[in-house]
Write a structure and sequence with these properties.
Blueprint (H helix, E strand, L loop, with lengths): L1 E2 L7 H9 L4 E8 L5 E9 L2 H8 L7 E2 L2 E2 L1 E4 L3 H5 L10 E3 L1
Antiparallel strand pairs: 1-3, 1-6, 2-3, 3-7, 4-5, 6-7
Amino acid sequence: MVRNLAQEVTQKEFHEFFKSHGNVRSTKIETFSDGKSRGFGYVSYETAEMAQKVLELEKDKLLLGGKNFEVFLHQPKDKRREGGAADAKFTNLFV
């Protein structure tokens, strides 16, 4: 999951940033009905190792549209309630 995205970041810029760090299956910035960014999005990599590389980037490298953003591994709601999914291998990053 990716959050705190600058409103000006385009889907293309978003995709290109994450593509530069590994083989991306898909990317998506969530938008309101008027098309404006909701400030977060999702990235799916081919492998968990590729997603991990982005998670290990220094915070000053996580910059788009002149604003730093945050990245997290996505955890399904049922796993969050159980205290996490320590053994699970996720490849989705949500922005």
